[in-house]
Amino acid sequence: xxxxxxxxxxxxxxxxxxxxxxxxxxxxxxxxxxxxxxxxxxxxxxxxxxxxxxxxxxxxxxxxxxxxxxxxxxxxxxxxxxxxxxxxxxxxxxxxxxxxxxxxxxxxxxxxxxxxxxxxxxxxxxxxxxxxxxxxxxxxxxxxxxxxxxxxxxxxxxxxxxxxxxxxxxxxxxxxxxxxxxxxxxxxxxxxxxxxxxxxxxxxxxxxxxxxxxxxxxxxxxxxxxxxxxxxxxxxxxxxxxxxxxxxxxxxxxxxxxxxxxxxxxxxxxxxxxxxxxxxxxxxxxxxxxxxxxxxxxxxxxxxxxxxxxxxxxxxxxxxxxxxxxxxxxxxxxxxxxxxxxxxxxxxxxxxxxxxxxxxxxxxxxxxxxxxxxxxxxxxxxxxxxxxxxxxxxx
Length: 395
What we know:
Layout: H1 2-28, H2 34-39, H3 46-55, H4 62-73, H5 89-124, H6 129-143, H7 146-169, H8 183-186, H9 193-218, H10 226-248, H11 252-289, H12 292-299, H13 304-341, H14 347-356, H15 360-388, H16 390-394
Helix pairs in contact: 1-15, 5-9, 5-11, 5-13, 5-15, 6-11, 7-11, 7-13, 9-10, 11-13, 12-13, 13-14, 13-15, 14-15
């Protein structure tokens, strides 16, 4: 197991290195000069432009520039932003990374879990209007243009739903449609936005770990106690977190403001991947239900829930887990569009902005960071196979 992980890490490093070289060459082929962005004066003399290019290491041949960039990158120097000169690129990306990571993780977990549950029950209860409606919905979400879905959700939630709640209940729903927070609210906050958001991320991580540990432990206790442990871990972790934020932390109002701004971006990314996960689970489940061991389980008189969850669904999850590799990259690419539409200040929006103003150092850093996130996601999926498929573990 450890030797396999070591080999995969070496492969990831080589892949990342080739990705960085290819990305640098493509960005270098773009017209223009970063000195234009730094100086902002088209009348500057050629001698001064050459001096600045030499200071930035841009006057050498392409192989030399690539080597310089890679050497600097792997020694922790990502360069400085030309647009926000002389702010380091690493500082900009580390500020934006938690915001993208939250969207990425929340949307991936929700879309995978909801798609798996929905597809499993659709395959088990075939036929009827509900299955046809769900299938059409899944196909629509799987093929819809991401910006179109984002604007539909903006229109539905921020305009129609807001007006309906205001007219019906007299409550101002006021769902934010862009940005990271409400500036007027945070002027009197005891902590800055990044600090509160960091606490929220750690709290989310703790909830996931508690539930995951409970699921693992439940496999080693008597079956009659398993539902209580699983449901109890969810209720206690989420309920305890809500109590802490609402009554103890003193910043619950500010955390709620961030949650409201997170709602539409996470919903958009979740729906993008949900349709594909649901359809694939349904198809895989239908194929599994035709296997002989399912008929054998029914002949033994096992309960329907046991056959569905322990025999059919566990084997049907393998293709879905494979598809998760592709959905990870789709979620990240969709996150770039989503962050731009909702003005969410993450890595995706930073990448789009840096490319539009030719801030090449920030663009390279953002692309590399997205590549690292994708490679780590692939590694997690590969390791997950070891636990899902005993044949791989034995091999």
